[in-house]
Amino acid sequence: MTDEEVLARIYTGLDREGPGDPADVAWAIKRLGLNGARAVCDAGCGSGADSETLANALPKAQITAIEQLPHLVKEAQARCERIPNVTVRQGDMARLDGPFDLIWCAGAIYFLGVTAGLRGWRSGLAAGGTVAFSEPVLLGSADETVSAFWQEYPAITNLDGIAARIEAADFEVLDHRQIIGAAWQRYYTPLAAHLVALRATDDPGLREPVAATEREIALWRTAQDRIAYALMLARPR
To answer: Mean pLDDT across the stretch 191-219?
Structure first.
């Protein structure tokens, strides 16, 4: 079973593929004062949860949702097929044509790196355009549980470290907020139930991936108040 096939088995049918909440989208839109006929990109849209939220919050905007994994593209297209201002297409989020007034990226910029991702997206932004992205963040010092949770992301840093990466791309930080607690519960609760169903199939190719994901959820449950993303708003200087 390929890595892509494993991901498809674990994440197909879920509302979202990472922590987040419609309130995060609402906060960013309000903070940026976005309205009217804007061009918005949902970069790394997954199954389209935030694409749908963006479209509902900005009904006059055109939302372009970009996703690389075929099974998620199909889910996002099915989810958004009746939403007239959303277009879902398969593509590389590192290469965005634009121009976009907002590039939204929930939990996916780490595939590119914050600095490299922002540099690559600069040419896809309209004048005055903004990038909103969520990125793993350390809250204070990392204890044993937090370190174990983030062991596959050694590049994690604190808020100052994220700001430094933004500044290295010649962007400025406009604002930020934490994604913690309920937004993670929204992601992990259905995922945990799905893992129980997958474990019951006793598929040899899924045993270790399912066990690893269950360990991840257990670590989060132990340290819910210390595991977070930072939702960053950044604009080119």
So the answer is: 92
